[in-house]
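Side project, low priority. Logging it here so it doesn't get lost.
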Amino acid sequence: MEQVLTRALTRIRQSVTDTSFMKFTLTLCICIVTCSANCQEQEVCPEQIPSGWAIISYRPCAACCGENGIVNIPRIKNLENLPEGSALEVCPQRIPRGWIVTGYRPCAGCCGGTGITNMPTIKKIVHSSAGTMLEVCPQRIPHNWVVVRYRFCAGCCAATGIVHMPTIECIANLPSGTILDICPQAIPSGWIVTGTRPCADCYTGNGIANMATIKKL
């Protein structure tokens, strides 16, 4: 393996400047040397986060990745092989597809920050079973999930005031004829509304909401 890398680096060096070669070498070394836990976690240079991975921490590094000053090197984790229902605390970033935010934790100096960083806890729901229910932070509700109630929570989800925490239910693969009560929201494709009723559990500050009864066609 070392001989192959040495020959490859020699060929590349012949066609690039010393500065470019140094940046390439540093990047390559970080990816090779810091791989751990069967390459489920590793450090990389910034702006190189591949799909299916998430940043879990940062490490300040002097003159890394070809830079002259301090660079915050991200440590990333492979999410692809984690089992359904896995929960993981990550740095603030775009939430990966198939995961949802269930809470936040304030952390001083985390993730390369100098102050308080709100660290999201995310949960894998990509293959959740029909009928699975989960309380989450307010966010865009994923496909094949519906909001069935809300709970008032003071200071939850990195908020300073009252948060309306939705409980969501997975409706993927439910049989035809299934009937559910849901809070006001877009009606899922393949379902129809058969009735409504007032419900305090769907109240989000604008009065008692009308809960919809829906049926799968």
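Brief comment: Residues 23 and 66 are 4 Å apart (CA to CA).
Revisit when time allows.
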